Amino acid sequence: MDSSILQHLVIFTTLAIFTDSPVQAFLCASDEHLVQSWSGYPVMGNCVKCSGSSSVNVGEWGRCSVTCGHGSQSRTIIKVNPCGRQSRRNETRSCNTHTCPVNGGWGTWGQFTPCGKSCGGGIQIRFRSCDHPSPSNGGLSCIGDSLQTASCNSQQCPVLVTITNPTVSVTSTSSPSRKHIGTRLTSKRQNYKR
């Protein structure tokens, strides 16, 4: 008996006793298959190079885990050897490593400016800035107004009235809440001819 067949016979017999199953996967190389010399146990035969062709099937990359800020994606690679046996592995790579855009946010309103009028309806203004945070990396600017106006000192202004006659000049100052009348006597200057 050929020594290689005898060697396989010893190994096959041992494995068959403990596993009670075909053992060619444990004995032949990945590109070989077992050619049995008979179909019973112990298994006897030789490992022969497979005559098929090998192939590699590379899957599509999956979706990135994030849209920005450094994510990852994977794909599956399946290899088929000449014997038709498959092996697969996953491959991973980085994706969307660019910095995420930051949209702008409004800061707090500032103080109103002094009123433009002391009475009769004025306007005061206050401002805010798009800096909480400021837009960056292509982010959107703030939506809304950076300036706000408000009415102020809307009360009616006092009214000054002056009535003059040849002997008396009267000045009247009035307001919606109270009235104050001041009187100034003006002497009439007369020139007499002699």
What's the helix and strand layout?
Layout: H1 3-19, H2 24-27, E1 32-38, E2 44-49, E3 55-58, E4 71-80, E5 86-95, E6 122-127, E7 147-152, E8 159-164, E9 168-174, E10 179-185
Structure at a glance:
This protein is mainly beta and 194 residues long. It folds into 4 domains: 49 residues, no CATH class; 49 residues, Thrombospondin type-1 (TSP1) repeat (TSP-1 type 1 repeat), CATH 2.20.100.10; 54 residues, TSP-1 type 1 repeat, CATH 2.20.100.10; 32 residues, no CATH class. It contains 2 helices and 10 strands; from the N terminus they run H-H-E-E-E-E-E-E-E-E-E-E.
Fraction of residues in helix: 10-25%
In the CATH hierarchy, the architecture of the largest domain is Single Sheet
Task: Please report the first level of CATH classification, the CATH class of the largest domain.
Answer: Mainly Beta
Give the overall pLDDT as a whole number.
77
Instruction: Tell me how many strands there are.
Output: 10
What is the CATH homology-level superfamily of the largest domain? Thrombospondin type-1 (TSP1) repeat
Domain module count: 4
Please give the radius of gyration in angstroms.
51 Å
Q: How many helical stretches?
A: 2
- C-alpha geometry: rod-shaped
Reported for the largest beta sheet, the result is: 3 strands, antiparallel
Organism: Magallana gigas (Pacific oyster)
Region (Disordered): 168-194
Protein name: Hemicentin-1
Keywords: Disulfide bond, Repeat, Secreted, Signal
